[in-house]
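seq:
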Amino acid sequence: MALLEILKYPDPRLEQVCPTEEQFDDSLRKLARDMIETMHHAPGIGLAAPQVGRHERLTVVDLSSGAEPDELFVLVNPVVLETHGEVREEEGCLSFPDLMLIVPRPERVVVEAQDLHGKPFRVKADELLARCIHHEIDHLDGILFLERVSPLKRDLARRKINKRIRADDW
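struct:
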């Protein structure tokens, strides 16, 4: 396994839409293993392929940070089928180091995805798991969490990021 470089905003690869994954091969499984290792090392609770410069429709989510194997989700070609409610909570992103924003997300989601062998499955998630899965699927659709906040909050966040970039602290 290998640690992968996590891209930081404003890298344009973070805003590309990932195509549907067609090949369920060893390359995809290796990418998933490397992403899991990278996510746990960061540390984070979710990571999408575009965040490591890959254009695959793959994301990994683990609220336990590796402590509970049953809590690891590897989602290939995930699609949100249903959303319920809305919650505004503080949220971060590995591609936006040390930036936390209050982001509206569904309280519950139902997602259909495939495993690393192409077998379809569904996940019903609520609370933090729903937030994390929704956030990672956004990455696969080229949507950054900055786009989920008001224009004013987005502008303030971008100014803060640009200031950190100029100070070589990004």
